[in-house]
Amino acid sequence: MSIFNSKYLKPFKNIYIVVLAVFVVWMLFFDAHSWLFHHELNSDIYELEYQKEHYKNEMAKDNKAIKELSTDEGIERTARETYYMKKPNEDIYIIEYEDSIAKQKKDE
Q: Which segments cross the bilayer (predicted)?
């Protein structure tokens, strides 16, 4: 039995099947618009959409903070809570609990 008469090579004797197989392999892997290239682009699109949602959420937080700081009460509250500022005629006492101190030391 000859190697060219094998039942496995019989479909490759037809030139149309050979050309079709070469074309499919070329389009899937070697072409400029190949499946691999499109797969990479789709993963980039997914990552960029995730970043887009993240930045939209950050913008919403920032807009909320800007709206809160646009009033005098908001500015005063932020100055008192964050920077421990006070009015000239008052005293500020900072009370820290033991469990909050322990968490701060673990975070550092």
A: 15-37
Rounded Cα distance between 78 and 27, Å, is: 60
Say how far apart CA 54 and CA 5 lie, in whole Å.
62
Give 43-87 pLDDT, tens digit per residue.
999 999 999 999 999 999 999 999 988 999 988 888 888 888 888
Q: C-alpha distances in angstroms, 21 versus 4, 5, 11, 26, 86?
A: 19, 20, 11, 9, 79
This model's pTM is above 0.70: no
Rounded Cα distance between 35 and 41, Å, is 10
DSSP 22-82: HHHHIIIIISTT-HHHHHHHHHHHHHHHHHHHHHHHHHHHHHHHHHHHTSHHHHHHHHHHH
